[in-house]
Task: structure prediction
Amino acid sequence: MLIVVNFGGQYCHLISRRIRDLGVFSEIVPYDVSVEKIKNLNPQGIILSGGPSSVYGKDAPISDEKILSMGIPVLGICYGQQLIGKQMGGKVVPNSIKEYGKKKIKIVNKNTPFKGLGKEESVWMSHGDAVEELPKGFVTLASTDTCKNAAIGNFEKNIYGVQFHPEVTHTPKGNLILENFVFEICKAKKDFDIKDLAQKIIKEIKEEVKDDHVIMGVSGGVDSTVAATLINLAIGKKLHGVFIDHGLARKYEMEEVKERYDRLGLNMKYVEAADIFLDRLKGVTDPEEKRKIIGKTFIDVFDKEAKLLEKECDKIKFLAQGTIYPDRIESAQPSKQADKIKSHHNVALPKNMKLKVLEPIKDLYKDGVRKLGEQLKIPAELLYRHPFPGPGLAVRILGEVTRERIKVLQDADYIFISELKSKRLYDTVWQAFAALLPVKAVGVMGDARTYENIISLRAVNSVDAMTADWAKLPYEFLEHVSNRIINEVKGVNRVVYDISQKPPATIEYE
Ligand code: XMP
Result:
C-alpha cells in the first residue's frame, strides 16, 4: 500500500483514488502524521500532496522531515515537491511567473518516473512557488519555459518531485507517471481488486463479529444498502436492520425499499414513524429547525427500537454504519455535505448503549462502493440513483410540512423523475427533483379562477455537489412535464424551472 500525506490540496482524494484504480491500496494521512504511525502502516511509497500554502508561509503545514529519510520512496506533488526542496536543503522561492493551467514541459531525464514519456508533454500546473536551487543529490527531470525545476529527482534516495499535477485528467500522461512511481519505483503489487474485496470484507466481518449480533439503521441509500448486504452475507440473520419510515420519502419509495431488501434477504424491521415526525414538524417552517427536529427524531426512534431489540436479544454487541472513506478522514476538507450526511445518515450511538462500531466500507470511495454493489448484485437502479437528502422531502417542501403538501410534491416529483427516465435523460443529470414553493398563484382552469401551488423543478449537473450548474434540459421536455403536472396533480396550477447555480444557490432548497 501507499500513503498520501494530505497538505490540504483539493486533489488529495484524487491522488488516492488514482492509486486504487491502479490496483494498489492507498490511504490518506494528515500532514502531521508521525514517523511511528508510518512505520506501523508499512507503506511501500509515500506521496506528498499539493496544498494551497507556501512552504515559507506562517501557518504552512510542515510534515516531519524524518519522513524523507525512512528509506521509503517519496513523490512530492506541487507543494509536496517544494517541501522536499526545502527540507532537503534546496531553495524555494516565489516563481517569477505564477503558472496556472495547461503547460508544456520538456523532459530532460527519461529515467524511471518519466519512462515511456515523449520529449515534450502537456501538464496541468497550479503553483506560485518553485524550487530554485536543487538540494544536494537532486537533478532536474523536466522544465517549462518559466520554471526550470518542473520535476526533480534523487535516484539514489528514490525521492522525486513534480511541480505539476499528474493526478488530474488535464495531464494526459499523468497516470503513466503515477504507474511508474507505484510499480517501478515502489515495487507495489496490484492486489486491490474490487472482485476479491467483497470476500475479504465478509471474512473480516465474520472474524470481528464472531457469535455476536449486529444492529444497523438502514436508509435505503447506496452506502447503507451495500454495507448491510455485506454484513448479511457474513452473518445472516444475526444482522438486525432497522428502517425508519419518516413519511418523507419519494412516491412508491417505501414499497421499493421493502421489496429490494426482501430480495437481498435482509433481516429487517420496518418502523412506521411518520406520525411522530409529522407531529413534531407541525407548524415548523424554519429550515434549520426542520433539519434539527428530523435528526433528533431519527435518533429517538432508533434509540427506542435498539433498546427493544436489545431486550429481545442480549447478543447485540455491534452497531453497524455505512460510513465511507470521505466521511471519515479527519484530514478531509470539511464540507457542508459531509457534515449533513453525518448528522442524518450515520445514526448516532443510541444513549447508554455500549456497542462497538462496525463500518465495513469505511475505506471505500463512492465509486468503489458502487462497484462492490454490482458484485453483490444490488440493482444498478439503486446504485446509480441520484443523491437524496437525509431529511427527505421536508427540505423540498418550503414552509410547513403536512400530509397534503407531501402528497402534492410526491405526485409532481414522480412525474418529473419518471419522465426523465423514460426520455433517457435521468443519467444525463447529476440530480433532479421537484420542490413545493410556499406561495400560491392565480390561474384559470376551464372558465374558473384557481389559486393554487407552484412546483419548482430542479435539475443540476455537478461533480461533487460542492458546485453545481442547472441542467439545460430541452424546452419541449420541460413543457411536457409541466403540462402533465398541471393536468394530473391536484392543487398545482403553475410549474417553474430553477436556473440558479451553486454557489450562490444550493442544490436543495432548505
Ligand atoms: P446542497 O443543498 O447543500 O446539497 O447544495 C448538496 C448535496 O447534498 C445533498 N444533501 C444531503 N444529503 N443529508 C444527505 O444525505 C442531508 O441532510 C443533505 N442535505 C443536502 C443534496 O441532495 C445534494 O446532493
In short: Residues 2-185 form a domain with the Rossmann fold fold (CATH 3.40.50.880).
